[in-house]
Automatic annotation (TrEMBL):
InterPro entries: Beta-barrel_TonB, Beta-barrel_TonB_sf, Plug_dom, TonB-dep_rcpt-like, TonB_rcpt_CS. The keyword Transmembrane applies. The keyword Metal-binding does not apply. It comes from Novosphingobium decolorationis. This is TonB-dependent receptor. Residues 257-718 form the TonB-dependent receptor-like beta-barrel domain. It is a multi-pass membrane protein. Residues 49-160 form the TonB-dependent receptor plug domain.
Length: 755
């Protein structure tokens, strides 16, 4: 507790100190800026951050490169209120302002104009596996806090994360390469290379931009049960192809293809087995293949900008989790009596047959195979005239189909590898489809100079269809053969947003907002789950906030702060079956999330840029859960899982001249995440504490004229902190604590070249 309070106090001091500017760095990178203020498109028109009356942060591509950001989870320290429930590659949940829980995504994640979603798995948790595309050749990232459904087609209950890539340059040839070689403590050598080529096919009319990357990160987790070192080697590769056509000055047409491939073994290790040791009896591979195709057409009328966009995403995700200990624990006379003898002791023959049945599957994994096809389409018209009214109207459609086969399969006891052909112990099939139609719009009135009043509304209609059946039974997990069973739910309704702001001076703006968020319900598909627990309801919230945006010393210092209060109704939460083996979705009662966010950027000395942000979040149940009497039922006052009270980040970068043509740079980044718990009830058998941690990264380099090239020495996790990002336990794990953590200290060299 003392360390947490001391660190939080230090972060507040950093946030109030003269700090610095991703905005200034953007100016050197060619990003659009006004003074020291990044121009964003969060309101579907270009506005500077300081003139945008919502809680928003932006990070430029140059800042991301200098900070070592490669995927969305690396952004956590860059913006207040942004965090991740980090279970490792392909297993990450985006969280803004403590709006965190299983189910459909609560944060809208966009790559350019395209919203993406994760896979449902057996637990209907599409928000827990957000697709992660490589963050190379990025223009900027925008973090919008609070519900955004009246401006964003896919909706966003708690906020929106926008990744905006650099687009093809139609005027000239260009290229860039970025390569790194590093070594990780407890592991070995890593290498990473990315390249970009921009080619105008017809000057000012047609151009292409091609990006490719390959990454191999050595493992640092040892499996002590199998005697295998460095099991979590990660390989990731893919690319991006962007075609831009500009038939006229008014019309732009973009076609993009994204490909991402990831291969690794689970990064979970067992806390009781020692740091970075896994005692799993099996290998637990993860294979994630993502393809995303998008098209966007923009036409500039005199009075408005029209955007039509569409996308198709295909994703295949497979993972494995060891269930061997749970199976072996079933090998007892008592379990035979309960499962075979109807409560009476088993006969010798019954016991022998039962033991053979358990032994056959005593080394096995749950091996869910998921395949998704998702289509989206959106039409939007936004005014671009300067008058008393600004407005945006739009329509959105999406259709997502996910097929899940969730078998338990046997593994080889010696190697831990999955036996092939597969030996299926039990299996559950799920076909899930979700269709959404929405219409949305906002109108902003400028009644007098400096004042804005905004009203927005969104009408939505959801259709969710689920068909599930079990074709291979297992008495050990209560799985019975069941015919295909269909569940359908349809929901529609409205959400609203109201915003008002006033600029007292060009450097001081006050705003206030009330906005509504919504998420659909559905049905569980867990093996052996009681029928009464099959369905779960939609949840919704109201977000109330007030914020102040200020600029100082001719915009050399930007300081923004906001406070918010969120009332969350029928919160969807993770529950566990009575045997503690499986999780499913239920509804809590009500929750309240209160917090304060502050962010400061400054450049008061030539060459010295400083940044700082701090977040305080109090996220608790405001009434007892209404999910029935289970060990995991939360009570009024319990904190929402995986939501720390304090978070913060800070950075300092100094650039100076070495010679007439060479420059030097030095940078330090700091990230603090406070402690949290894995469940509402801290005294629950399988609840685990996630302790606070702090991470420090550093970079020192030499750069050529105009940053045309650079060579850098860098270190991530400088203090080699054992930063646990997620901790879980269950009956499947037999009470062991499985954790994921930040990569140990890594030292490397990085070279960049622009042509």
């Amino acid at each position: 507790m003392g360390r947490s309070l001391f660190t939080a106090a230090s972060l507040i001091a950093l946030a109030w100190a003269p700090q610095a500017s991703a905005q200034e760095q953007a100016a050197t990178n060619g990003d659009t800026v006004v003074g020291a203020d990044i121009v964003v498109t969060a309101l579907k028109r270009s506005t500077s951050i300081q003139e945008t009356p919502i809680s928003i942060s932006a990070v430029t591509g140059e800042t991301m490169a200098n900070s070592g950001v490669q995927d969305i989870a690396d952004l956590a320290a860059s913006a207040p209120g942004l965090s991740f429930v980090d279970g490792g590659p392909s297993q990450r949940r985006v969280v803004i302002r403590g709006i965190q829980g299983s189910g459909e995504p609560m944060i809208g994640t966009y790559y350019d104009e395209t919203p993406v979603t994760g896979m449902i798995g057996a637990g209907n948790d599409a928000g827990g596996s957000t697709p992660e595309l490589k963050l190379f050749d990025v223009e900027r990232v925008e973090v919008l806090r609070g519900p955004q459904g009246t401006l964003y087609g896919a909706g966003s209950m708690g906020g929106t994360l926008r990744i905006i890539y650099n687009k093809p340059d139609l005027t000239g040839l260009g290229s860039a390469v970025d390569a790194s070689l590093s070594n990780t403590r407890y592991g070995g050598w890593n290498y990473d290379a990315s390249a970009m080529l921009n080619v105008p096919l017809a000057t000012d009319k047609v151009g292409v931009r091609v990006v490719g990357f390959y990454k191999r990160q050595d493992g640092y987790i040892d499996n002590t049960a199998l005697g295998i070192d460095d099991i979590n080697v990660l390989k990731s590769y893919g690319g991006r192809l962007m075609l831009r056509m500009q038939p006229s000055e008014r019309w732009t047409f973009d076609v993009t293809t994204f490909l991402n491939r990831t291969r690794t073994d689970t990064p979970l290790w067992t806390q009781e087995a020692g740091k970075f040791n896994s005692d799993a009896y099996t290998r637990q591979p993860i294979v994630d293949d993502t393809e995303l195709y998008s098209i966007a057409s923009t036409y500039e009328f005199d009075f408005a900008t029209f955007v039509a966009s569409g996308s198709y995403m295909h994703r295949e995700l497979s993972s494995a989790s060891d269930v061997s200990r749970f199976m072996q624990a079933q090998r007892s006379e008592g379990r035979c009596a309960a499962l075979v003898g109807g409560g009476s002791p088993c006969s010798d023959t019954q016991l022998s047959d039962y033991y053979d049945y358990v032994d056959w599957q005593s080394y096995s994994v749950l091996y869910p195979q998921q395949e998704m096809d998702a289509w989206t389409g959106e039409l939007r018209l936004s005014s671009n005239t300067t008058g008393i009214l600004d407005w945006t109207i739009g329509g959105f459609w999406s259709d997502r189909s996910i097929a899940v086969w969730n078998p338990q399969v046997n593994t080889d006891p010696a190697s831990g590898e999955i036996v092939r052909p597969l030996q299926v112990v039990t299996g559950r099939h799920i076909d899930d489809s979700l269709t959404q139609l929405a219409g949305y719009g906002e109108v902003t009135l400028h009644p007098f100079e400096g004042a804005q009043l905004t009203g927005g509304a969104r009408y939505f209609h959801y259709d969710k269809d689920i068909v599930g059946y079990t074709d291979v039974p297992s008495i050990l997990v209560g799985a019975r053969i069941t015919p295909p069973t269909a569940v359908n739910s349809t929901e529609n309704g409205w959400v609203f947003r109201f915003n008002g702001s006033y600029e007292f001076t060009p450097d001081v703006m006050l705003y206030a907002e009330a906005s509504q968020g919504y998420r659909p319900g559905g049905a569980n598909q867990v093996l052996g789950l009681d029928a009464a627990l099959t369905g779960y309801n939609s949840d919704s919230l109201w977000n109330y906030e007030v914020g102040l945006k200020t600029s100082w010393f001719n915009r050399a210092v930007l300081f923004n702060i906001d406070a918010y209060w969120i009332d969350w109704s029928d919160m969807q939460v993770t529950q566990r079956t009575p045997n503690g083996a499986f999780s499913y979705l239920g509804n809590a009662g009500k929750a309240t999330v209160k917090g304060v966010e502050a962010e400061v950027n400054a450049m008061l000395l030539d060459g010295l840029s400083l940044q700082g942000n701090v977040t305080y979040t109090d996220a608790t149940l405001s009434e007892d859960q209404n999910t029935g009497a289970t060990a995991t039922s939360g009570l009024k006052g319990d904190r929402i899982p995986y939501v720390p009270k304090w978070m913060g980040g800070a950075s300092a970068q100094y650039d100076w001249s070495l010679t007439d043509s060479l420059g030097g740079m030095a940078r330090v980044d700091f990230n603090y995440v406070g402690g949290s718990w894995s469940d509402f009830r801290r005294n629950y058998t399988f609840a685990r504490e996630v302790e606070d941690y702090a991470l420090v990264n550093a970079r020192l380099g030499v750069e050529g004229p105009g940053q045309s090239w650079g060579a850098y020495l860098y270190v991530t996790n400088l203090l080699d902190a054992t930063a646990i990002t997620r901790a879980t336990s269950s009956a499947i794990a037999q009470g062991r604590t499985l954790v994921s953590s930040a990569t140990p200290r890594t030292i490397g060299v990085n070279v960049r070249q622009k042509f």
